[in-house]
Amino acid sequence: MKIAYIVTRAEPIGGAQIHVRDMAEAMQRRGHAVVVLTGGEGHFTEDLRARGIETVILDHLTVPIRPWKDLRALRELRAALETFKPDLVATHSAKAGVIGRMAARLLGVPVTVTTHGWSFTTGVPPFKAFVYRWIERVTGPFGADKTITVSEYDRQLALRAGVLSESRMVTVHNGIPDVPPALRADPSRTPPRLVMVARFGAQKDHATLLRALAGLRSLPWQLDLVGEGPLLNQTRTLAADVGLDDRVHFLGQRRDVDQILADAQVGLLITNWEGFPLSILEAMRANLPVVASDVGGVSESVTDGVTGYVVPQGDVGALQERLGRLLSDPALRASLGMRGRAEYETHFALERSVTKTLAVYESVLRRPLDTSPIAEQTGETGSRGFAARGGER
Q1: Which of the four, 77, 97, 136, 362, has the lowest number of CB atoms within 10 Å?
Q2: What whole-number distance in Å separates Cα of residue 391 and Cα of residue 393?
Q3: For residues 108 and 126, what is the distance between their CA atoms, to the nearest angstrom?
Q4: 124-159, pLDDT tens digit by residue?
Q5: Nearest to 176 by CA among 393, 347, 388
Q6: Is 111 helix (H, G, I), strand (E, B) or coil?
Q7: Among 273, 279, 302, 319, which Cα is nearest to 17's?
Q8: Are 147 and 126 in contact, with CB atoms under 8 Å apart?
């Protein structure tokens, strides 16, 4: 099979880019021909090429809505697809989802859309949410053969918004590849180090985290913040204002996140809106307990009181109380982290997600596809296996 993956941009690298990279590499290992089309160059495209994945740069594909440039992007994308002649187009992220499915429809090629969190989800600024909800409805005639939502929360949100029917959607939770045992953390180590991997932008809520930690200065801890973004300097100023400038370390954009997590004791994601964040899965994979905001599909990965804690969005008091528990109890950190690692192995390993995604592709193409030895051994092949498992847990 020939699969064309489309994602809007190469930088900054987020969940959609990492998912496309891992999925494209997994499909290529299974013998399928793959190309990734994206807007711009960056670490993402370098990583793709290093893994031997064919990459095409689209000069006119950008995130902002610019009708004339978007029309040029549509023509550019259509031409690239005509050259590759895919059996299936798989689009990822909002803009790529709209333009990609239009191009696929014009060429008569089956298309899937994977939404990594709707752009009209709860927490998104109201006007932006209104615009993207309207776009999804207007482009309905160019709808995908199947839309994959990465959380059940997102599937239900689309149903409530009236942008898609139930028969055209399926939930497939994200999965990520494993790391060597040497990159698994010891959550019981003291003093504890907390880590949050997140872009400094409106979506993430570093301010609530810093205000919660300001009330826990009597406890020994350090915080590593990984990422860049427009609110970085503002967050630095806030850390100093609440008296935490000696406790908080701004590490910038890093390519050794796995090692940073292995050196930590608690994983964090304090945020305003999400789809199904990979950073949580990365922390669970590393054997870390996770504390995260209860938004989007977060509670579908973090089980409150079992693998970590989910707290109401923006609730400084609740976050401070849960963090206080973990900072004061090494045995609790170890117990929650161990359960989180087991949850990752059972539900969020990459092969599980790939097998389920292949089943969706098969349902779109109406023909069987190659399966991996892992899928053959477990009997989880094709649409029969997918239906028997009920789609997701």
Answers
A1: 362
A2: 7
A3: 35
A4: 888 888 887 887 777 665 678 999 999 999 999 989
A5: 347
A6: strand
A7: 279
A8: no
| Residue-level pLDDT at 385 | 29
Look at the pTM and tell me if it is higher than 0.85. yes
| Model pLDDT for residues 181-235, shown as the tens digit of each residue | 999 999 999 999 999 999 999 999 999 999 999 999 999 999 999 999 999 999 9
> Residue 347: is its pLDDT beyond 50?
yes
* Angle, CA 200 vertex, CA 214 and CA 23 arms, to 5°: 125
3-class state of residue 349 by DSSP: strand
Q: How far apart are CA 375 and CA 362, in angstroms?
A: 14
For tokens 């994983």, the residue is: 267
Token pair listed for 5: 């993956």
Dist CA 113 CA 115 (whole Å): 6
DSSP of 261-281, one letter per residue?
HHT-SEEEE-BS--SS-HHHH
Q: Residues near 292 by Cβ (< 8 Å), separated by ≥ 6?
A: 268, 269, 270, 271, 277, 280, 298, 302, 308, 309, 310, 311
Domains parsed from the chain with CATH numbers: 2-177+349-388 (3.40.50.2000), 181-347 (3.40.50.2000)
Q: Are 56 and 81 in contact (CB under 8 A)?
A: no
Report the SS3 class of residue 60: coil
Provide the 3-class DSSP secondary structure of residue 227. coil
